[in-house]
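Your task:
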Amino acid sequence: MDIKHFIELANIKTGKKEEGEMKKEIAGMLESVSRLDETDAPGAEPLFNISGLRNVYRQDEAGEQSVAPQKIMETAPQKERGFVKAPLIFE
């Protein structure tokens, strides 16, 4: 196992002592996970979410306008062809 690769991926700054400790810890974790491959659990469904929470989607709906579009255009610092012009954030 190349511990330096793990350290680089995690963007961690370490010394030689920490590298040795991390190598032992990661090897232990990988050993534990590899034991799971050896476990026989017939009929067990794969578990993807242990919390039981699920994403709930709703249809987007237009709500009431709190400010009239004309008022926005009147107060906009910059306008272009009937739209509010915003400063560039990417080049």
